[in-house]
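User: I'm putting together notes for a lab meeting next week and I want to include a structural view of one of the chains we've been expressing. I don't have a solved structure, so I'd like a prediction I can at least talk through. The sequence is below, exactly as it appears in our construct file.
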Amino acid sequence: MGVFSDIFLDCRLGKFFPGLDVNYHYWLGPLELAPLRISWPRRLQTLGALNWSCNFLFLGFGSLFVTLYLLSTSFWWITVTYGIWYLYDRKTPARGGRRIPVFRRLPWWKWLADYFPVKLIKTAEMDPSKNYIFGYHPHGMFATGAFTNFASDMTGFRTIFPGLTATLLVLAGQFQFPFFREYFMTSGACSVSRDSIEWLLTREGVGNVLVLIVGGAEEVLECRPGSYRVVASTRRGFIRLALKHGASLVPVWSFGENDLFDQVPNPHGSKVRWVQEKIRSLVGFAPAFFTGRGVFNYTFGIIAHRRPINTVVGAPIDVEKIAEPSPAQIEALRQRYFMQLSALFDTHKTQYGVPEHAHLTLL
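Assistant: Thanks for the context. Below is the predicted structure for the 363-residue chain, given as structure tokens.
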């Protein structure tokens, strides 16, 4: 179906933040409606992508709202019983989590992986007698490639990297939402805290792959098509832990991760960026003003655009175990890591549609 109308996303932040004079008009172009006749596999793929967006945006806070609401009903005992369980189980996300393999193979994760599609590419062999820290870049809007590759079994991680077990590390706040935390932990995801990382590197044997989204919430604000900006200057914690435990570092670049959504312009120094940074400093995540596509249109909505994600795993950097690494040793390894990340990007970029002249910008 053809053009229906033209759309603007009008962000008058001054209405919500008194004294802030911001009036962005963000052009979205003509509304392109989805055709009515679409094959069932593609419909299921769209459903999988919609499910992922709703999980990411609404399921955590939705579960919190329902849990609190139950206190005012005759089902109050559900909240009280769960509260007791939560207190007993609160350390599990930092103690190896609670992976349930069957949940990593649920059909909607397959639909999600096929929607883009998401592909995992290996460039070097990995020794299963070692432990690894994968640095995943970029964060993107929803870290879709990170979840699909490393928190589900739908892109063949265990076949591509035999003998290794991947654990996606995310903000501890994700495990503070009641009931949602139980659902999320079935994927094998754990907290990205220092205690969690040290537990996985010392209590779970070898063959462990810890996947950290290095840029974190700060990098969400750099997410837009054609952006290759990486938050790097303040990232040293994972380098120190790699040295302390002798875990090999592996740079990972996911081509296409930043192409899934459009974002309202927010250059450094703008008032929009100032508001986003302030909110991020208070609550731990960045409020990005973004748009993707909808269920029945390709122009506007919360679903990611159907664009391929190719996750390229680089060669491991062997790390000598140093119980108390010095600042100089940490900095030397940090520079080596980001140099190898840049080399990985440059080596593979043209294969995945990135212009030859494009390079990573380390922030």
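A couple of points you could mention at the meeting. The chain has a mean pLDDT of 91. The chain has eleven helices and 13 strands.

User: Perfect, that's what I needed.
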